[in-house]
Amino acid sequence: MKRVAELHVHTRHSDGRSSVREVLQVCLEKGIQIVSITDHDTINGSMEAIEIVREEHMDIEVLPGMEVTTSSGHLLVYGVEEDVEKGMSIKETAERVRELGGVTALAHPYQIERRGVAIPSRHMPYVDAVEVFNAKYVIGICNAMARKLAVRFNKSMIAGSDAHVAEHVGYGLTIIKGQVMESIRDGRTEIKGKKIPVSSQLLYALGIKR
Q1: Contact present, 67 and 77 (Cβ < 8 Å)
Q2: Sequence-ordered list of residues with C-beta below 8 angstroms from that of 120, at least 6 positions apart, any chain
Q3: Chunked in runs of 10, what are the mean pLDDT values of the chain (210 residues)?
Q4: Total domains in the fold of the chain
Q5: Residue-range definition of the domain harbouring residue 51
Q6: What is the DSSP letter of 79?
Q7: Can you give the CATH number for the domain in which 161 is found?
């Protein structure tokens, strides 16, 4: 059974502008079946999402997650239910996540202005997956390089919208084939997505739209 997952979203728990509830509502409207709230250096957004879904019996699975700031750049973390310390190396962070039963993925590698890892090949032995499609990229070269990196090192591929407002949720999707954690770890995924329009990104960056 294939399911549609949004694996990279930010809310007001870090630098996003939408609430967790707003993100969940857009997911339901767009037929997204799995979502991970990946706020920067905090699991709080995910835990709020889990609570809302449970209390209101929403038809969506929440994969707890966060985007950890390592000493080399951003690392997506899935399947943990407590904060992972920021500032450690990718190796140390990945080891800690594995101790907690989670998996890791490099977030938007090569795009250093957004704290993507500059030389990701150094860290490939330690991570489980690579974000090979990030919907916020204006130019697709970094996505293409990330895909080549994943192929070279035989790593699982995921996509993410990297949405910071609910309107952008769903632009980068991962098709999951089976249990979500196992699929991310074992590479049973497909990538689906399109770039967030530059005009829309600019409106939000300038604060013209909430």
Answers
A1: yes
A2: 106, 109, 110, 130, 146, 149
A3: 96 97 98 98 98 98 98 98 98 98 98 93 98 90 97 98 97 97 96 90 72
A4: 1
A5: 2-205
A6: S
A7: 3.20.20.140
